[in-house]
C-alpha cells in the first residue's frame, strides 16, 4: 500500500475515535449506580436473573428511560429480577460498561452505537429498539445571525469533534457549498467544539455566535436570548431521525431473551404513556433528572425542550445509516460495515402484542 494512502487511512481511523463520545448525551465519563428498585411481593425472577442493569443518560432525549425508571415500569416488567440503573455522562463510558458486562442494556445515541459496533467487528452490541427522535437545533445570537446564509463566517459550537451533532452540522455546511476542515474546524464557518455544559456560558460571553446542540442545551440558549434558526428535524424525511437507541450486549441477548423482552415491554409502555400524557410525562422525567443529578430543569428550559423531542419505538434505521454516511463524507469515519447491527425480533414481538405496527431495520438486521 502506498505510504500516503496508508497515512490517510490511519488518520481517518484516528479521526473516527472521537465519535465514540456522545457529548449530546452527557458531560463526562462517570457512571453512577443508583441501586436497585423495589420488587413487588410475590413476583418471580425472569430467566433466573437476580438483576438487569440498565444504563442511560441524565438527558431529556433519554426520556423513555427517565420515565420508565421513575414510574417503576422496568421493575414491574422484570418481576423479582431487580432493575438496576447506571447514569452515564458520556458515550465511551457506557460502551465500556457494556463491553465489560457492567451493564446489560443501555439507552445511547447513534454515533457510539455505530462506533461500538464497527470497532468490535460487529461482536459487542445490537440495537434492539428506538427510543427518541429529534431534539436538536441550530440556535443563534439574533443580533449576529438573522438568516441561514449569515452562518457563513461565524463561530458555531458543536458538542465534540465527530459526535452526532458535529457530524450533522458538518454535513449541513457541506450542503451549503461551504468548506470546513473537519479536524481543525476552520473554514468558511469556524466550528468550535464545546462541551454542552459550558456552551451556554460561551454563548452568553459572545465567544460563539450560535450552536448546533441537543436538548436541553438548545432550550438553555433560547432562554438566554438565542433564536432557533433551524430545527434539524426539518432536514430529515417525515422530520424524524434517531437521537436515542436501545442497545444490548449480544451475549446477554442470546442468554436472556425473556429479560430483554421485558425491558422492551417497559420501554414501549413508557413511550405510549409519554405520548398520551405529555405534560405529566415531562414532570415525571424532570423528577428523575433531579433524582439523578440533584437539579431539576426550570420550566423555561423544560417546556420547549420537551416539545422538540418525539418518543418513538421505531429505531429509524435508515437515518442511522445516513448519519454514518455523513461521518464518512466528512472524513471522520472509514466506511463501516453495519450489517447485523439491528435485531428487532423481540421489539416487533412486543409491538405486535400491543397492537402496534412492526418496524424495519433498513436491511441492517441479523440474518
Identify the notable features of this structure and list them briefly.
single chain, alpha/beta, 40% helix, 367 residues, five-stranded mixed sheet, seven-stranded mixed sheet
What do the pLDDT scores average to? 89
Q: In sequence order, what are the helices and strands, one letter per element?
A: HEEHHEHEHEEEHEHEHEEHHHHEHH
Task: Tell how many strands the DSSP assignment holds.
Answer: 12
Largest sheet: 7 strands, mixed
Describe this structure in words.
- With 367 residues, this protein is an alpha/beta fold.
- The chain has helices spanning 3-16, 63-70, 73-78, 91-100, 110-119, 164-175, 199-205, 217-223, 250-255, 257-276, 278-293, 299-307, 317-329, 345-353, and strands at 32-36, 51-57, 82-88, 105-108, 125-134, 136-140, 155-158, 190-193, 210-214, 227-231, 242-249, 309-311.
- α2 crosses α11 (278-293) and α8 packs across α12 (299-307).
- The longest helix is centred in the last third of the chain and has 20 residues, at 257-276.
- Residues 1-31 have low confidence and may be disordered.
Amino acid at each position: 500500500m502506498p505510504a500516503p494512502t496508508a497515512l490517510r487511512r490511519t488518520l481517518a481511523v484516528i479521526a473516527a475515535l472521537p465519535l465514540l463520545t456522545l457529548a449530546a448525551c452527557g458531560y463526562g465519563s462517570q457512571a453512577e449506580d443508583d441501586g436497585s428498585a423495589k420488587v413487588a411481593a410475590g413476583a418471580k425472577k425472569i430467566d433466573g436473573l437476580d438483576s438487569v442493569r440498565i444504563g442511560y443518560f441524565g438527558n431529556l432525549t433519554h426520556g423513555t428511560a427517565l420515565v420508565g425508571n421513575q414510574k417503576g415500569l422496568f421493575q414491574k416488567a422484570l418481576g423479582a429480577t431487580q432493575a438496576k440503573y447506571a447514569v452515564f455522562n458520556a458515550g465511551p463510558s457506557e460502551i465500556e460498561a457494556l463491553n465489560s458486562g457492567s451493564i446489560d442494556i443501555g439507552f445511547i445515541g447513534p454515533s457510539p452505537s455505530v462506533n461500538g459496533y464497527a470497532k468490535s467487528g460487529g461482536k459487542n452490541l445490537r440495537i434492539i429498539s428506538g427510543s427518541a427522535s429529534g431534539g436538536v437545533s441550530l440556535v443563534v445570537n439574533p443580533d449576529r445571525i438573522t438568516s441561514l446564509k449569515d452562518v457563513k463566517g461565524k463561530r458555531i459550537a458543536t458538542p465534540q469533534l465527530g459526535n452526532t451533532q458535529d457530524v450533522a452540522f458538518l454535513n449541513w455546511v457541506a450542503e451549503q457549498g461551504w468548506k470546513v476542515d473537519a479536524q481543525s474546524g476552520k473554514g468558511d464557518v469556524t466550528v468550535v467544539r464545546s462541551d454542552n455544559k459550558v456552551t451556554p456560558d460561551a454563548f452568553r460571553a459572545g465567544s460563539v455566535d450560535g450552536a448546533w446542540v441537543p436538548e436541553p442545551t438548545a432550550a438553555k440558549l433560547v432562554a438566554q436570548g438565542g433564536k432557533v434558526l433551524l430545527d434539524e428535524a426539518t432536514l430529515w424525511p417525515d422530520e424524524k431521525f434517531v437521537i436515542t437507541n436501545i442497545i444490548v450486549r449480544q451475549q446477554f441477548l442470546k442468554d436472556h431473551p425473556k429479560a430483554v423482552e421485558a425491558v422492551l415491554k417497559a420501554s414501549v409502555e413508557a413511550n405510549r404513556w409519554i405520548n398520551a400524557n405529555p405534560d405529566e410525562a415531562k414532570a415525571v422525567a424532570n423528577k428523575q433528572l433531579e433524582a439523578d443529578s440533584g437539579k431539576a430543569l426550570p420550566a423555561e428550559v423544560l417546556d420547549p425542550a420537551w416539545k422538540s423531542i418525539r418518543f418513538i419505538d421505531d429505531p429509524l434505521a435508515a437515518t442511522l445509516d445516513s448519519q454514518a454516511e455523513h461521518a464518512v463524507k466528512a472524513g471522520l469515519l472509514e466506511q463501516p460495515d453495519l450489517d447485523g447491527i439491528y435485531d428487532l425480533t423481540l421489539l416487533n414481538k412486543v409491538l405486535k402484542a400491543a397492537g402496534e405496527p412492526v418496524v424495519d431495520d433498513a436491511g441492517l438486521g441479523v440474518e
